[in-house]
Design brief:
Blueprint (H helix, E strand, L loop, with lengths): L9 H15 L5 H32 L11 H4 L2
Helix pairs in contact: 1-2
Length: about 80
């Protein structure tokens, strides 16, 4: 486990401590757990955003599925 020094303003520090207290009571490492969960959520959102962008690019390219156009009604039905 590594140590990271993070500087927060008073409001964000209070919010972080409040969230950690609410979720994990006063257990040791509660702030670290809240920060880890926040980073995991941020990474997950970024991954979904990248996947969505990739999917849109693929859709814009389009796919040839062998469709050659509409037939006349008389060719389809007797």
């Amino acid at each position: 486990m590594a140590n990271v020094l993070v500087s927060l303003d008073k409001d964000h520090e209070a919010l972080l401590r409040k969230l950690a207290q609410k979720k994990y009571s006063s257990k040791k490492g509660s702030i670290s757990k809240v920060m880890s969960e926040a980073l995991d959520e941020l990474a997950s959102k970024e991954k979904r955003k990248k996947a969505k962008s990739h999917l849109i690019q693929e859709m814009e390219k389009g796919y040839n599925i062998g469709f050659k156009g509409y037939k006349k009604r008389s060719e389809i039905y007797d």
